[in-house]
Amino acid sequence: MKEKSINYYHLLGAVLILGLIFYFGQIYQKSAPLGKNQTASSGSLIKNVSAEEIYQMFLCPCCGLPLDKNNICCEMAEERINYIDSQVETGADKNEIILAYVKKYGINSFADKTKQEEIKEELIKTAPTDRPIISPSPDSYDFKEVSQKQGKVITYFNLKNEGQSDLIITKLETSCGCTSASIIFDNQEGPIFNMPGHGVNEEVGDWQTVIPPSQTTQLKVYYDPDVHADFRGPATREISVFSNDPIDFEKKVTIELNQVD
């Protein structure tokens, strides 16, 4: 009888130990960090990255300072901050948010240019071999002297698709309101784009043009000296071409000039 009683208590003790192991195992599982392929529920307090951490990585195109939600200087900064917030809310990790941002607003928007090179190296590693490749020619043009009295001047750049799949150009942007640009393909000029935030690009909508492999389109660039009628001296302006090229999705060309009377 004594031996049976001892076995009974041993069995009861084993059951209690197994129950405690299961209980604490459930607590640990609920409190453990999310795995790589897991996502937080809508009520979770776990975040992969803070929006503030991403803001400071990118410059405002208006003032050239890092994005700051407590000091929004313009509509462009506000748009970019809101975009980062929306990406953070999806539960995306830091690298996914950074990549989404540079694809939308350009790889040249980094405050730290070394990070820009790191991202570009990663894009080169992962790009498909049959990708579209945008190739501008020339990559800069010098108007020399531009007379304010004589008004607007125009030049052209060739944009060739040197890749193996269709190149899709989705938008253009310029670095100043004095400069605007459009795409000419099959002898038809598309909508004219300007500097973001000036109300012109927003009216274009979901425009795009498709350039097949080995074909070339023209980028038409306008410079209007009357936009800054009192300005005199040298100036450099940039035109950004956004496309589905997975490496150079923002390709820039420049114009130079010396504005005179």
From TrEMBL:
Keywords on this record?
A: Membrane, Transmembrane, Transmembrane helix
InterPro entries in alphabetical order: CcmH/CycL/NrfF/Ccl2_sf (IPR038297), DUF1573 (IPR011467), Ig-like_fold (IPR013783)
Gene3D superfamilies the UniProt entry points to: Cytochrome C biogenesis protein, Immunoglobulins
The portions of this protein that span the membrane are 6-24
Q: Name one Pfam family in it.
A: DUF1573
Could you say which residues form the signal peptide?
Answer: none
UniProt protein name: DUF1573 domain-containing protein
> Where does this protein come from, organism-wise?
Candidatus Portnoybacteria bacterium RIFCSPHIGHO2_01_FULL_40_12b
